[in-house]
Amino acid sequence: MRIDIVTCLPTMFNGFIDQSILKRANDKGIAEIHVHNLRDYSTSKQKNVDDYAFGGGAGMVLMIEPIDRCIEHLKSQRSYDEVLYMSPDGERLSQTISNGLSLCENIIILCGHYKGVDERVREHLITREISIGDYVLSGGELAAAVVSDSIIRLIPGVLSDETSALTDSFQDDLVAPPVYTRPAEYKGWKAPEILLSGHNAKIEEWRFDQAVKRTQQKRPDLLKEE
Ligand code: ADE
Questions:
Q1: Ligand 1 near 112 CB (within 6 A)
Q2: Which domains does the chain have, with CATH numbers?
Q3: CA of 218 to the centre of ligand 1 (A)
Q4: Distance of CA 170 from the midpoint of ligand 1 (Å)
Q5: In angstroms, rounded to a whole number, what is the distance separating the alpha carbons of residues 119 and 136?
Q6: Distance, CA 162 to ligand 1 centroid (Å)?
Q7: pLDDT tens figures, 145-185
Q8: Residue 191 gets which letter from DSSP?
């Protein structure tokens, strides 16, 4: 998989790409992330990428031209399954959406900034708009990082234990059961004995029961029938 991120703040992705799970995916040749600076696609001398909103009002708007030039350039190199725009008014990101996106070959993610982007970008260049929650961030960069991480960790081979993405919270509308590691007893606080029993079928049954109990306690909304 290849993800191309289009942003006016490319350095925001430095630590994220160099150190997270994405580095491992990249080293293994499973997934690549490329970050593109919108300013490189500006035709103005000052490399402007934003301008005042028509009709007035506070806040700058990202201009269509550098965005279109960048996306056109990428599309001339390969075809893309989706061109995502990160926006608080987009579809709310869910495990189901990430599962679907993880099957894509190539994705472009456009990060908004300031007051947003010229609406014609959304009308003509974007295939899908994604929000990571009902709150407003200063820009789409953190949201793009969240979406990229949630997608890439699902690709087989990225996580060392291939089944572990399948046992994540939300994969089956249940939150994950509790986990324990050594020591089996600390300050008198004991790990459940069943987990040390070596009885795999019983352990799986216990984990499922715990997942259901936890979901009832913490996220009862997940258990409500549609
Ligand atoms: N840009 C600003 N806020 C955002 C949000 N909540 N989700 C996605 N992109 C955003």
A1: yes
A2: 2-152 (3.40.1280.10), 168-222 (1.10.1270.20)
A3: 25
A4: 21
A5: 18
A6: 30
A7: 999 999 999 998 888 775 678 778 887 889 999 999 999 99
A8: P
End-to-end CA distance of the chain: 33
Instruction: In whole angstroms, give the CA distance from residue 99 to residue 155.
Output: 9
Helix (H, G, I), strand (E, B) or coil at 123: helix
- Residue closest by Cα to atom 4 of ligand 1: 88
69, 178, 208, 210 from 191: Cα distances, Å: 57, 10, 17, 14
Calculate how far, in angstroms, residue 200's C-alpha sits from the geometric centre of ligand 1.
Answer: 42
Q: Which of 111, 117, 128, 137 to mutate to test the pocket of ligand 1 (most atoms within 8 A of CB)?
A: 137
Phi and psi based region of residue 50 (left: phi greater than 0; alpha: psi -120 to 50; beta: remaining): beta
131 CA distance to ligand 1 middle (Å)? 5
DSSP string, 206-222: HHHHHHHHHHHHH-GGG
CA–CA separation, 174 and 220 (whole Å): 9
In tens, the pLDDT along 48-74 reads 999 999 999 989 999 999 999 999 999
**Closest ligand 1 atom, CA of 138?**
2
Q: Report the pLDDT averaged over residues 102-131.
A: 96
Strand order in the sheet with 106-111: 32-37, 2-7, 106-111, 82-92, 128-131
Confirm if 18 and 50 have CB atoms less than 8 A apart. Answer: no
